[in-house]
Design a protein that fits this description.
The chain folds into 4 domains: about 35 residues; about 70 residues, no CATH class; about 160 residues, Jelly Rolls (Sandwich); about 120 residues, Arc Repressor Mutant, subunit A (Orthogonal Bundle). The protein is built from 15 helices and 11 strands. The strands form 2 sheets. It has a 6-stranded antiparallel beta sheet with strand order 1-2-3-10-5-8. A 5-stranded antiparallel beta sheet has the order 7-6-9-4-11. It is α+β, with helices and mostly antiparallel strands.
Length: about 425
């Protein structure tokens, strides 16, 4: 203590069994005095209060991102071993640092645009932070403005995607451009917590929305609200399209009908926005100068069609709570927290998303479980099912077949086939070969 080299933990460990020791009591009194002095300074010093609040905001953002990324089981370190705890924390820090880097680059790119040159004041810039996750989904990747061409694959596919500007970014995960030869003529898309809008610029493609439904052809494109069953997409030898990966609630402001009417019933874009408007938009997209201009045209069209939607705030907030827990949330408590009845909440969900809160939670849990599977290594299905919150392995297997039509082991076999035959393909990650 005299040399000031003893750590606080080392000192306190000496008094764990004798908290009445005079030295320990003296340190407690010194601590109280220091807190009192700091509180007095804080009350009379406005600059210190501002500094403290700004620091607390940073810490709260930091903790909020940690909670969102999560680690271990249910956001807690699952092991009592110090080495494993340190490894878990280091992995969490790497993930958060990666997210902070990506967000910093996105902020820099945005502020470099001419339209933002004189918009923000110095105070606004001081309030900027890279510790946000509204552009992130716990079941997928953070889309950035990038272009990939079939990395590691013998088949050339060009894929460009970017996040739209506000307020569309609260409704849409990303806008994308896709051109090239698909890896398989038919691909199965298991249901996920996302909707889809496609504007087709090439040969027609086909969709079969379930084994009991006939395959339909789509020439102009399609609108797919959040599905509850696996869809089968049939592609031509060469495909070309622009599209939108939409958050579960994100299609509602662009639809003239309740989302429940389209649940598991894909429709053409013409049926939603009208033939003349779609024909004119497709002509402009087809003559655009490259993928980035196409995405700008699509973004402008979405901004023009954006409209106020009753109940969207309620559904978006509740859906975000479900997403933050990967579906592991008490559904009954959501309506209580929102201050509405469970019937009213379910009705709003069906109108704007097409499914109930319980169904959305099931889909988020399934998606999080699938992304936790590493097909390249051994899989402990019991541990995976327990970590995802399923009652037992039988419950997990039943849910897996309901969502994909496959057993978990068969799913891994199909996923491994995709990885083996088309390593690094831009479409790898969710679609499965149906051939």
């Amino acid at each position: 203590m005299r040399l000031r080299t003893a750590s606080t933990e080392a000192l306190l460990r000496r008094f764990t069994s004798e908290t009445t020791h005079p030295a320990y009591a003296a340190m407690l009194e010194v601590g109280r005095a220091q807190r009192t002095v700091f509180l007095d300074r804080w009350l009379r010093d406005r600059d210190l209060r501002r500094e403290t609040e700004s620091g607390l905001n940073v810490v709260e953002n930091y903790n909020g991102v940690n909670d969102y990324i999560k680690f271990g089981k249910r956001g807690e370190l699952a092991s009592n071993r110090r080495e494993e705890q340190e490894l878990g924390m280091l992995c969490l820090h790497i993930l958060q640092s990666a997210l902070g880097l990506i967000n910093t680059l996105m902020i820099q790119d945005t502020l470099a645009l001419p339209e933002w040159e004189n918009v923000l004041t110095d105070a606004d810039r001081r309030g900027l932070t890279p510790l946000f996750h509204t552009n992130m989904t716990p079941y997928g990747e953070i889309p950035g403005a990038r272009c990939r061409r079939g990395v590691g694959d013998t088949v050339g596919v060009e894929y460009v995607s970017r996040v739209p500007r506000p307020p569309l970014d609260g409704l849409i995960d990303d806008l994308y451009y896709l051109e090239g030869a698909p890896p398989y003529a038919r691909l199965t898309l298991p249901p996920m917590p996302s909707a889809l809008l496609i504007l087709n610029l090439g040969a027609p493609f086909r969709i079969r929305a379930g084994t009991d439904i006939e395959t339909a052809e789509y020439a102009d494109g399609c609108v797919v609200t959040m599905p509850t069953r696996a869809f089968e997409f049939g592609y031509p030898p060469e495909t070309r399209s622009v599209g939108v990966h939409v958050k579960p609630w994100g299609l509602a402001p662009f639809l003239p009908m309740p989302a429940a009417e389209l649940c598991d019933r894909p429709v053409t874009v013409e049926q939603v926005w009208g033939r003349p408007a779609i024909a004119e938009l497709r002509d402009r997209l087809a003559t655009a100068d490259g993928p980035h201009e196409m995405l700008t045209l699509l973004e402008e069209e979405l901004m023009r069609r954006l409209c106020e939607t009753a109940g969207l705030g309620l559904v978006r907030h509740t859906s975000s709570l479900i997403a933050a827990t990967s579906g592991a949330v008490a559904i009954g408590g959501l309506s209580v927290a929102a201050g509405v009845s469970s019937t009213h909440l379910a009705q709003r969900f069906k109108e704007l998303i097409g499914v109930t809160p319980k169904r959305l939670a099931r889909t988020y849990r399934f998606a999080a479980t699938v992304f936790a599977i590493n097909p390249a290594g051994p899989i402990d299905w019991g541990d995976l099912a327990g970590g995802a919150g399923y009652f037992d392995q039988a419950h997990f297997g039943h849910e897996f077949r309901a969502f994909t039509g496959l057993t978990p082991t068969r799913y891994v076999e199909v996923r491994r086939r995709f990885l083996r035959e088309h390593p690094g393909h831009v479409m790898d990650g969710w679609p499965l070969p149906a051939d």
